[in-house]
Design brief:
AhpD-like, mainly alpha, 0% strand
């Protein structure tokens, strides 16, 4: 992983930190989205960790770098191992074919970023 990848990941984190309070205060739609997110990722028949792993695979399929960063971090925080996250990425690759390998490259950089904290 090079410095450009690190900067990209850190920029995603910083933009989220900057914009989230604004939207939480000003946007009822965003507030509703956050409530839906809380409900979606709460433990149920599937654990929060399992749901985060599903979201990682979907993030690969739709090539959402911000989603990859968020859901990989959440999965790690919920106790997912590197191998579990890699398998979730592999599901995304399989579900999206060749383009998924491109998305997975960024996801691998995010995983590496969180494995080696500063």
């Amino acid at each position: 992983m090079d410095n450009l990848d690190i900067k990209k990941i850190e920029q995603i984190i910083e933009i989220r930190k900057q914009t989230r309070p604004y939207f939480l205060k000003k946007s009822k739609v965003y507030q509703s989205f956050i409530e839906m997110e809380k409900n979606t990722y709460s433990d149920g028949k599937l654990s929060k960790k399992q749901k985060e792993l599903i979201a990682i695979g979907i993030s690969i399929v739709i090539n959402c770098e911000s989603c990859m960063e968020w859901h990989i971090k959440q999965a790690i925080d919920d106790g997912a191992t590197e191998d579990e996250i890699l398998e979730a990425m592999e599901v995304g690759i399989e579900m999206s074919g060749g383009p998924g390998t491109v998305s997975a490259r960024f996801a691998m950089n995010v995983l590496e970023y969180y494995k080696n904290p500063k």
